[in-house]
Amino acid sequence: MTEKVGAVLVIGGGPAGIQASLDLAEMGLKVYLLDERTTIGGNMARLDKTFPTNDCSMCILSPKLVAAGRHPNIQLIMNAEVKGITGEPGNFKVRMKRYATYVDETKCTGCGVCAEHCPIEGVNEFDMDLAPKRAIYIPFPQAVPLVFAIDPGLCIGCGECKQFCKADAIVYDYESEVESDLSVGAVLLAPGYDLVDPKVKTEYGYGKFPNVVSNLDFERILSASGPTAGHVIRPSDGDVPKRIAFIQCVGSRDAQTGNTYCSSYCCMAALKQAVIAKEHTEDLEAHIYFMDIRAFGKQFEEYVTRAEEEYGVHLHRNNRIANLVEDSNGDLILRYHEEAEIFEEKFDLVILSAGARPPREAKSLAKALGIKLNKFGFCETDGFTPLDSSAPGIFVCGAFSAPKDIPDSVAQASGAAGKIAGLLGEVKNTLVQPKEYPAEIDVSGQEPRIGVFVCHCGINIGGVVDVPAVMEYAKTLPGVAYAEQNLYTCSQDTQEKIKEVIEELKLNRVIVASCTPRTHEPLFRNTVREAGLNQYLFEMANIRDQCSWVHMKEPVKATEKAKTLVRMAVAKARLLEPLPVSKVQVEPSALVLGGGIAGMSAAIAIANGGYNVHIVEKSDRFGGHLNTIYHTLTGLDPQEVLEETRKEIEEDEKITVHLNSTLEQLSGYLGNFESKLSDGSTVKHGIIVVATGGLEYEPKEYMYGEDEMIIPQTELGRRLAKGEFDAKNVAVIQCVGSRNEEYPNCSRICCFTAMANALRIKKEHPETSVYVLYRDIRTFGFAEEYYNEAARAGVLFVRWDPESPPVVTKENGQIVIRVTEQFIEDEIVIKPDLVVLNAGVRANPDNEELAKMLKVPRTEEGYFLEAHMKLRPVDFATDGIFLCGLAHSPRLIWESIAMANAAAARAMTVLSKGEVESEGATSVVDADKCRGCGDCEEACEFGAARLVEVEPGVMKSQINEILCKGCGTCVATCCNRAITLRHFRSEQIMQMIQAALDLEGKT
Amino acid sequence: MSSEGEKKPGSTGGEGWEPNIVAFCCNWCSYAGADLAGVSRFQYPPNIKVIRVMCSGRVEPQFVLRALELGADGVLITGCHIGDCHYLSGNEKAEVRMKMTADLLEMLGIGRDRMRLEWISASEGEKFAETMREFTERIRELGPNPLTNGGEDSG
What we know:
The complex is a heterodimer of chains A (1003) and B (155). Chain A has 1003 residues and is an alpha/beta fold. Chain A folds into seven domains: 1-100 and 176-193 and 358-435, FAD/NAD(P)-binding domain, CATH 3.50.50.60; 101-174, Alpha-Beta Plaits (2-Layer Sandwich), CATH 3.30.70; 195-357, FAD/NAD(P)-binding domain, CATH 3.50.50.60; 450-574, 3-Layer(aba) Sandwich (Rossmann fold); 585-692 and 846-912, 3-Layer(bba) Sandwich (FAD/NAD(P)-binding domain); 696-842, FAD/NAD(P)-binding domain (3-Layer(bba) Sandwich), CATH 3.50.50.60; 923-981, Alpha-Beta Plaits (2-Layer Sandwich). Chain A contains 24 helices and 52 strands. In chain A, helix 9 (406-424) packs across helix 21 and helix 15 (597-608) crosses helix 16. Chain A is globular, with a radius of gyration of 30 Å. The N and C termini of chain A lie far apart (69 Å). In chain B, strand 1, helix 1 (30-39) and strand 2 (48-53) form a beta-alpha-beta unit. Chain B has four helices and four strands. Helix content of chain B is 35%, strand content 15%. Chain B has a single domain, classed as Rossmann fold, CATH 3.40.50. With 155 residues, chain B is of the alpha/beta class. Chain B has a four-stranded parallel sheet with strand order 2-1-3-4, with helices on both faces. The chains are: A alpha/beta (1003), B alpha/beta (155). At the A-B interface, strand 4, helix 2, helix 13, helix 14 and helix 23 of A face helix 1, strand 2, helix 2, helix 3 and helix 4 of B.
């Protein structure tokens, strides 16, 4: 057998590709992150806000971009594609081709002077062609890597950029394309999706009527950093639209385009856009025309309700817009029917909710890597292995396997990383070397000797601010031993220079006055560390982004401000102190709570990664709720999978089984937990995975329990599987115990169950009539196919309104259901011999007690609440604790499995390190001052501040520096000033305030 | 929403007095918004000096008081929008605290208008610039900090 390679190729740099890369890199694997674009970020970088939290997309994505861009184990390969593959799982050779950007990425500083001088203008694809770009460009300001690129289609080779580039980064004579090979152990596909071109739906006039835009166009229009600077205006005349309409399912659920699948995210995206547009323009009227509103995710239904009730978004159910026409004002007239009548409505702007199609590179990827695509052109996967492509060793995540939203994509990304860790666990840390730094110089007791490096940034700073004057001024400030100016302080030669000066002049503090610490602080911290200084002895003054660039026409005042900013930095630098990074050994084992399919899958994934696992199951048998399910929508038998999984759990030597057992007591924290279990054992473990599952709701409605002809869906499934089904007339009622006042959200799985059961009945008992009484059918993704199939098989779908739900009665021994059908607006009477209640999902009631023990939050419905709904779906805010499956929210089986792998991967990023490091800039408590009031414990979201009984009856706060994130909220909360946040100490900030206001510059 | 205010710092307020303003910006949203204003070249008056903190929840009332005591004419605190906080709820705590601080300023006769709390996201470069323009103008209208002897105020 050939030797395995501890490296992974990740294809696609959207949120999924980035997450997977970060997880893999943290697990000690070398990552090549390849994208055919010149930057990472994918479609998410285009979004203005994200549902259901209305988070600013760039705010939450940008830190991930930066993290991926500067991770020592991740190498970005931009503007490239894959051409072929040889080898086997564990040891592949991948042929790739890179296209030249004509800019030397090792030299470009991202200053942008080149673009300012470029005379050629084209359209920026990133802005959906709504804004211009130069022939040398970055697609968006937060781009990672921050390296300009020449668009060879636009460039005329005039040489202006080359002339003005002070970094000498422009290289016209690069070869236009270069092929090379990469050695990797596994490949992960995350190329995402492309938007269906709305032009193919000619009836909506996209491309013809200027005021018809796509959903992604509209994201850019809404975005504060988009082409209209966040002003919602319509393209034809720049007017502020007062009436806007969204047309759903443009190129989704659509036989005409062949895209009969559902794109899964467009309903929520449209609702979000309507809400955000209304926040921009208060008196705006927003109408959404849709077939079913598919709000099946965690807390999505509540979002729909809020959009409708709080924001007054108008929802027009059951509408497929036939066409629209433009009038002479550029307004658009929509024709639609409601309750069998035809209406016309006029709008200022129409947004087409275009669906997802496979990424444009799907076919070439499939050919190059030998993977199968499904009939729609997405990556083919099997029912219970959603993260495996058809080729062993090549994994898939995100929208490439089926259209899905960001949290599901991110969960899959971590899940795929977990599977790869299982494959390559034995060769982790073979291709990445932890960086060695020289021993730290002890600066204690030394007077400050500060070195100040003032950057010209080409002409970006020097063109406005008098840099030599700032440098000379810096020399006069107390504590400053040295100052100099640099053309580019970030260039490699300046790093060497800084190190030399530190050594030569025995500097013990360093200030760089240049751009923003958000992007450049890590670089300079690294430099001072290489010179033997503690990284916290470094400070930055932002004299570019927050000075020269924003006061371009006031050079004198800008220079004065730059001096003030340097003075402030020096004031803080004098008080900087070396901060130790404490390390804690990690107990290399895991505790998994819950023995359903999610818990078992997580346990196996972690064990495959090489760690010991304790799995705790309350009952006497593994399998959880899945024990009651006998067939899936795709025709698979979960019992087979369950049996195999159980066997794996029992046979795996790394897994210790605790049946009939629960967690009784927990102590410790990330890396060092200790648990007492009810079976009497005490377990030490580094992390916890919460997989406590959910329950089926026990109906109170529809005469449940009063008649044996009324059963829940699991009983129907059982009867079908055991051959006990003999009904001739079945009525299935949907949304039983879901989407109501008591339980506002959707249970996600019941529509799938309804289709699975209905199709099986129709297949095995074709003479039986099946009625499905529903509110919205939510067969998202490719499951839409089964909805269509059920309709073709003769299943009768009856839509009811929540205002008038079906009424079940018993008359003369006969069950009678009366329901008002929404299409025909008439009452239908059904006399079934079997009523199936599709009861929703409920959170496990044990969660309440467990949440208290783990000190983690829950939603109002009792599910656990993750750290961030969009980008951290399987993490808790408290480090070292992860969640998956129905503990999170209702999930399908394969989703639970993917999520379990994700939780395992996230857990393994901790376990694989052997030790965890604290952030140096954390809070510390002065025990003498602490009065033990507990305000800090309450203020801390991360479980870092805890009251501890230090002697009988005396409570003191203690802050765990491993868990502390350094936000400083506890400091400002403490009424007795007992807490200090290192690196942002009150006296440091006070000194900065004083320096900012000291107009004579005396400090 | 135009940038008309931007061109005239120094042109009003008599005697060459210029407002001196300290702004506390959280690292994740509003400091990033300030950087984006720069990248986008949105111009605003140079009267404002930014102090970066990791979270608006770090800002203590005494920072505001100290700044005013030392002669700042205005203090601005900016953070992530509610719901967007990188540390989940630091900005909510800042909101409570700064409301209290504003009441205190009113009681002390400094006036609550000299302090402002604003939510600015990482993609709101224009909002950052506009807030800086507008707050500078507002402070210009209010005149010099009454606690200082500076400007034309004598007591």
